[in-house]
Amino acid sequence: MLDSREGYSPMSFRFLALTRRSSDVCKRHTDRCRAVVYQQQNHQPEEEWGPVPQAISDTAPSFTALVESTGFSTIPEEPRQEQIAFPVGSPQAYSVNPASIVSVDAVTTHTKAYFEYFHQSLPLVHRPTFTVSSTPKPLMNITVVIGSLYTIRLHNPDDAAACVQWSRGLWESGCEELSRLVSSDWRELRKTWVMQSWLLYIIYGAFMSDRTQFEKAKQMLRTLVDAVRELGLLRQSIAMPNSQSWRSQSEPSASRDDSQTPYTRWRSYVNAESMKLSLYTLMFLDFHVFSACNIRPLISPMEFEWELPFPSSLWEANNAEIWLQRVTQQYEASTLLPFDDSLDGSRGLATTSLSLATQELMSESPSPDLLTALAANPLATLYVLTNLDSLVRDFTRCYYQLPPSLSDPSAFHILTQSQNRQMIAAMRSISKVIKDQAYSTESPQYLLWRAIEFITCSIKVSLCKPDNLLIGGIVDNSLIAGLATATHLTLGSYTAVRRSATALLQHTSGEDAMLPILDDLTGTLLNIAGEDREFAFREAPWVTVTGYGILLTIWRVLRGAISDIRSNLESFNKLPKTSESCMLIFNSIMEPILHNTGNETADRDPRLWSRDRSAFASLLDESETLFIQLVQRVCKDRPVWGIGPSMATVLEEIVAASQTTAGAGLSILVE
């Protein structure tokens, strides 16, 4: 909400009312969205979603035969092979006391789904050493809960409703169990599995569509940040002074003790890398959970000093022998690595901290060692990109508190020209790393590299079109509410409210600032809209949020181009030249939209780039409606975390409101 009305122009009161209305809208459709998530999208027939992976479908019994309401332990104390059934016929009974003792088959099904779908987007847990029998209960529970989000489509609607209530109850009980564990001794957070569990519980709560769960996840995130700060875990030299012991050189001999065996060195590496990935993930979530609500991150990258993660091939090695072989191949050294522990001589100084890596990327010629490290681990690239994204948002906060600089000719108006050059240099280096990967949908790291592409595009957008919530000073109370408010604000420009200069308010530059990244926007639009539904189903929730933000920007740009074209028609009674920015933007955006809204077989709609006024006018009239229909389809293709269906509901309400108010389509919405 806005702090006060003082100093606001009449235009701003319209946006103030719009913001309040969006908050009411969000409250109204919250319950509807839950039903949409689990009753409309998640229960698509198999033919529509495609075949379920064999590894999962083979172990997926009916949910009605898996659960009984006798507590909150996921795995029986003595695992039994037989199914444990709960009474049939009243799934509503589990809303109060969710069923939770699950058979071994069910645990296997949900765990496989976790690693099949979610793990590829965030390999936080060390898969080769993860076992059902030895994993602590809170960590096992949350992997089962997240996995159940993906297996829910295997059940009929009644079983799915029971599964939803069960998983939420198990999440809530897990949060309480972790809280009791840490409250008894807060140093328990030094244990890697405790931190991994805590992070996964945060992810589930933050990205579901329930406001209560978001509040709990936000509280857990703040608690974890305070704890790791108190424990000194933000600095590698304090948190794990022996974290590099697996890299130490020793004299090979027959009498060498167990501390130097390949297995013990591998486990030492796994322990150190697990803690490193957990803390990097904390930084990552600190940004992505809060940014959609316009809340500043809690951790500064300046206080975070951990070296970049090692190559993902080492993390995914199935045993000590494979790991040691990959270490040898990766660094072209002997099996006993002659590393300089203090300077990380094997990978270069730029990999020793997140801040140094970010600074090095913004130089004109980043270190080849750093680029190699980023290429070897897309998760490390994702973490560095998030830091760049956070930096741009910090610059934006400062920029919109300063007087406008109308003399700066740079289209990327937030930064100075030298700062802009540095940021673009970083984007160029990362784009080269992405291009060199030449990844495909068959690659096990496809989802990570795709996420990197989306976030790279989002950063470029932030340099040209800053977030309306950020520059408007609007802070929302949940991720879903923030996205809903951003959707409503897309229908108008909020920038002028924060720029007091009369000259700026009178200046109409159209959408020229978007021309430098038009190719990125249209490429991302084509990527999102043309995504195979199975891969859309696997999409990580933060990627859905990022992609939706890019779609809102494209919508804003499209509306601006439509307005400029109509203005030209009214003033000069003719279409602008095809080389003018508004025509370039309109035609470039409409091409992928038309290709993905029932015109896939046609080479190109003849109305595109047309100079025929009547033909082009029909496309102009349909354009925004076609775009919204495309966005709604994209949202419905992403039902797992509730973000997509919630935003589809918001769009439906916007369309219905515009038609009810004016009966003339979307073109009359707030300009």
Q: Tell me the major beta sheet.
A: 2 strands, antiparallel
Radius of gyration, whole Å: 26 Å
Classify the helix fraction into a percent range: 55-70%
Large-scale geometry: globular
**Number of β-strand runs:** 2
Tally of helical segments: 26
- What string, H for helix and E for strand, traces the elements in order? HHHEEHHHHHHHHHHHHHHHHHHHHHHH
Average pLDDT level: 78
Structural class: mainly alpha
What portion of residues belong to β-strands?
under 5%
Distance between the termini: 22 Å
Strand order of the largest sheet: 1-2
Query: Low-confidence spans: pLDDT under 50, at least 5 residues?
Result: 1-23, 25-101, 249-256, 333-344, 500-509, 663-671
Protein name: Fungal-specific transcription factor domain-containing protein
Organism: Talaromyces proteolyticus
Domain Xylanolytic transcriptional activator regulatory: 112-328
InterPro entries: VerF-like, XnlR_reg_dom
Plain-language structure description:
It is a single chain. Helix 1 packs across helix 26, helix 8 packs across helix 10 and helix 10 crosses helix 12. The protein is globular, with a radius of gyration of 26 Å. With 671 residues, the protein is mainly α. It is built from 26 helices and two strands. Among the domains are: 143 residues, no CATH class; 207 residues, no CATH class. Helices cover 59% and strands 1% of the residues. The protein has a two-stranded antiparallel sheet with strand order 1-2. One of its GO terms (molecular function) is DNA-binding transcription factor activity, RNA polymerase II-specific. Its main location: nucleus. This is Fungal-specific transcription factor domain-containing protein. It is found in: Nucleus. Keywords: Metal-binding, Nucleus, Repeat, Zinc, Zinc-finger.
